[in-house]
Amino acid sequence: MSTITTTETTARPELPAHQGSLGARIAAGMATPGGAVFVLVAVLLVSIMISNPNFTDPGALIRFAGRTAPIAIAAMGQYYVIVSGEFDLSMGAVIATQVVLAGNFIGQDQGRILPGIVLMLVVGALIGVVNGLITTLLKVPSFIVTLGTMLALTGLVRYITGGAATGNPVDDFRQIGRGGIQDVPVVDIVPYPLIILVALAAASVWLMRRPFGRTLIAIGDNPAATNYSGAPLWSYKTRAFVLSSLSATVAGILLVGYAGVHPSVGAGYEFTAITAVVLGGVLLGGGRGWVLSAAAGAFALELLFTLLTSLGVPSTWRDTVQGLIIIAAVAVSARAWQVGRRPRRTPSPTDLSAGTPTQPATGTTTGDS
């Protein structure tokens, strides 16, 4: 019986134990790439308040958070795919597809709002399933699969719309993206997109604490070992793609509120989401990163662009800055996560003779913060 127990303990990956006071643990977390993005958000926020005093108004801050919510939701969806070791380049095209679908299916028919939302979610899930199954079962790199999906959906949207705006759905549907709870003290309004973001963030934290989330991170860290453990990689990765497409769908629903129905809505969102994820310290290649850090990366990115605007930097520099952020964030986070790993302890003769299991190297993060 003792032999079986020792074998099971040795095979089970262990996470580093929480040590020290709460303050010490928070400080240690802030020193990681996933924690550092929250410090970056605070620094950028203070910088904007100094350069633009109007930003100190609580109402302005809450409205900024509402406008950023769709990007943060898309970033959380992209997180699931990236942390599993894949990419999803189809997010922007999925958003455009859903926006056009809302405009053409719902239109001005009040009774089609709920069926329209259900239809959009189903379409989003199907796109995710196709991306996931082609990537996992046919062994086509996800970069190629989602690039093909992006081109196919973009072409379809342009064919349907002729490249022009096709009208807007009924105003009650658009209120999901541009409305909110009115007459709230201090902030005046709490935007619906912000409420949806908070709900999805809470659900994401819960999901990443579940076996699904931990297994998804383990797949990104070491797919071969996870496969040997009996976890169906195709199933987990396909579900990650589904979550990504559903996140893009929710972002599309929100964007209809203030962007209307146009084939260009969502353009570039896939790169913005990837930038937010890597800025949040999530390691490209998978296995490292926290889901809330991906959302925080979206806020840091938008705060940075807002700061540049307030400083008079032309908006034409936006893509250049975004590209530099991707390069720098990937380099820094990869190095930081590598340094943060604990080395594997070499078993001593005493350990071997006593049958004491050695401490495995820490290979994953829980992804729940």
TrEMBL record:
Name recorded for this polypeptide: Autoinducer 2 import system permease protein LsrD
The organism of origin for this protein: Nocardioides currus
Classification via CDD domains: TM_PBP1_transp_AraH_like
Membrane topology summary: Multi-pass membrane protein
Biased composition annotated in UniProt, kind: Low complexity: 354-369
InterPro entries reported for this sequence: ABC_transp_permease
GO CC list: plasma membrane
GO molecular function term, any single one: transmembrane transporter activity
Organism phylogeny: Bacteria, Bacillati, Actinomycetota, Actinomycetes, Propionibacteriales
Pfam family, one: BPD_transp_2
